[in-house]
Specification:
This protein has 6 helices and 7 strands. With 164 residues, it is of the alpha+beta class. Helix 1 crosses helix 4 and helix 3 packs across helix 4. The two termini are 29 Å apart. InterPro entries: DUF7523.
Length: 164
Amino acid sequence: MSLAADARDAVRERPFLLASLRAGVVNYAAAAASLDLGDDDAVAAALRRFAEDLPELEAVSHDVMVTMRSGVGLVGEDIEESDDDPILSVAGVELSGGGPLTAIIAEGEVGPALLATVISRLDAESIVVDAAGVAGDALAVVVPRRQGAAALRVVESASETAYA
């Protein structure tokens, strides 16, 4: 493989660097040194060429309705079986009403890219995410009860100014 191909692969393994290249906010010399692929000047040149081929990062607004549901828990651990529809279910593990957590639910124009933005922003705010998922026109993140209001604000903000 060529050095340019190695640099592209290394960037793809680091989504933060890929987003930074798309946003045009990279110090190429520092990025090349952090990748440790060999000649930093050659790697920096490869990164510049790669960045030129990438689509620019654009702000996208999503039409969603965001709600908060307190009292969510893991079925079988936090709560007994529930007659409520599960808020989130992954591989047979369900979160439903009756527990110590809070679910933030966005319905409308949602998808994996918005979920990634939401998760990144929640992490930046030091909000713990206990579970998250997206399917159809619904996105859900489950957080500790005390962080529910802050998480609600983050999800609302992310849906207004997500980047794609």
